[in-house]
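Technical annex, item 7. During the second reporting period the consortium partners agreed on a shared format for inverse folding records so that results from different sites could be compared directly. Each record opens with the tokenized structure and is followed by the designed sequence. A conforming record, contributed by the partner at site C, is shown below for reference.
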């Protein structure tokens, strides 16, 4: 895709197994298909917004619309970079990095999901590490935040391995019931102390103004 008017299409983040990039329409269709196939067991809900409580077709369509919406709504003050994650050439999930007033606060947040067929292989840790490298090394972030339900042990383990520390609890309404989230925070020192995944950034410079840099 021509990245002249939207240089984020030229941004790539690579690790030993993964490539993260803003998907073109073909890759976005592949990502939507991964969401349609399922990202968690039906008897649990790891998200505060239960977007997966839908048919496979609706999940795929929601993924397609959400990602295009992040591009359309982007401003230098309020942005969400929603990247398709490919492992050995196959799209396996999505990794988000977002912020409001990042140029002032230096703080951003992460979110992600991974297709069920690709879980249990360490991909979730590797793709989050890629997003952290972009934030701290590429954009000069001061802090990264995340959150997970108290029973989402996989997500909490990823955060712990990468150096996040608990930052309080929050009560949210999910499926009409009260659920408890763990808030998590990572500073630059914690990130540097827990770096184990080699990450490379490609094509970031032309996009810096879009991040408010």
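Designed sequence (site C submission):
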């Amino acid at each position: 895709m021509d990245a002249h008017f939207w240089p984020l299409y030229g941004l790539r983040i690579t690790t030993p197994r993964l490539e993260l990039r803003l998907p073109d329409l073909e890759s976005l269709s592949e990502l939507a298909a991964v969401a349609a196939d399922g990202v968690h067991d039906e008897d649990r809900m790891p998200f505060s917004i239960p977007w997966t409580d839908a048919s496979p077709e609706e999940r795929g369509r929601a993924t397609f619309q959400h990602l295009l919406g992040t591009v359309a709504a982007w401003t230098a003050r309020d942005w969400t970079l929603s990247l398709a994650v490919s492992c050995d050439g196959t799209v396996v999930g999505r990794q988000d990095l977002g912020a409001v007033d990042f140029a002032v606060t230096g703080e951003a947040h992460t979110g992600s999901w991974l297709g069920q067929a690709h879980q249990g292989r360490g991909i979730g840790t590797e793709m989050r590490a890629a997003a952290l490298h972009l934030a701290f090394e590429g954009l000069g972030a001061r802090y990264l935040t995340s959150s997970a339900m108290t029973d989402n042990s996989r997500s909490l383990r990823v955060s712990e391995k990468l150096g996040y520390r608990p930052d309080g609890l929050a009560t949210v309404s999910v499926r009409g019931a009260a659920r408890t989230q763990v808030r998590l925070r990572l500073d630059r020192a914690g990130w540097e102390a827990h770096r184990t995944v080699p990450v490379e950034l490609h094509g970031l410079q032309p996009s810096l103004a879009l991040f408010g840099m």
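The chain has six helices and nine strands. The radius of gyration is 16 Å. All partners now use this format for quarterly exchanges.
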